[in-house]
Amino acid sequence: YGVDAVFTAIGVVPEVELARQLGVELGGTGAIRTDAMLRTSLEDVYAAGDAAEALNLVTGKPDWFPLAPVANKMGYVAGSNLAGLAEEFPGAVGTAVTKVFSLEVGRTGLTERRAVEEGFKPVSVVVEGRSRAGYYPGSTSMTVKLIADSETGRLLGAQIVGGEGVLARINAAAVLISKGATVREAFFSDLGYAPPFAPVWDPLVTAARVLWGKLRT
């Protein structure tokens, strides 16, 4: 078949060979098990970054987040503790964004499948919106998927695809999910508005409104 491009996604695994040699305990993800201060099972040995586990703020369980912002903050915490300044790493929700040709793609929190695996009863919506006010030049389409727990209304995850403006929305969703916000709280979030940057009904808020309605029926 004729194609324009072929992509292969093989995934990544934590590099923990040194930890194995030292006898450091590994977690269920295959990365190094740590506590909130990023201490390992060996005294005075700390682990941070792509080789170490961290708390998933949605599931409340150890998880693995091979992402640069998480790794840098974990490094800050480990370094602080090594310097005698007591600090804890609160956890993460796995926020990531990338660009595929002209499309921006972002995700945070749990996918719907992962939510089921973790014992939640998820409900979700997919909403189409615009990156800017519809009448403003340069506005592009945006698709937002929001996932919530049907029993508590707690926001569990979000995925967004669009021509522009994905980063701002996925970051807002990440903060909401990190703080355990409900869909109702997401709907009433006081987000900024101006025609060059967003429609008056932001796609993230619109998705929350639709999902909130679904939860109430």
UniProtKB/TrEMBL annotation:
Record keywords: FAD, Flavoprotein, Oxidoreductase, Redox-active center
Q: Which cofactor does it need?
A: FAD
Molecular-function GO terms, alphabetical: oxidoreductase activity
Asked if the Swiss-Prot or TrEMBL record annotates the protein with the keyword Ligase, the reply is no
Gene3D superfamilies from the UniProt entry: FAD/NAD(P)-binding domain
The superkingdom of the source organism is Archaea
UniProt domain Pyridine nucleotide-disulphide oxidoreductase dimerisation: residue ranges: 97-200
User: Residue limits of the FAD/NAD(P)-binding domain?
Assistant: 3-75
Q: Which InterPro entries match?
A: FAD-bd_OxRdtase, FAD/NAD-bd_sf, FAD/NAD-binding_dom, FAD/NAD-linked_Rdtase_dimer_sf, Pyr_nucl-diS_OxRdtase_dimer
Q: Which family does it belong to?
A: Belongs to the class-III pyridine nucleotide-disulfide oxidoreductase family.
Q: What is this protein called?
A: CoA-disulfide reductase
Q: Which organism is it from?
A: Thermofilum pendens
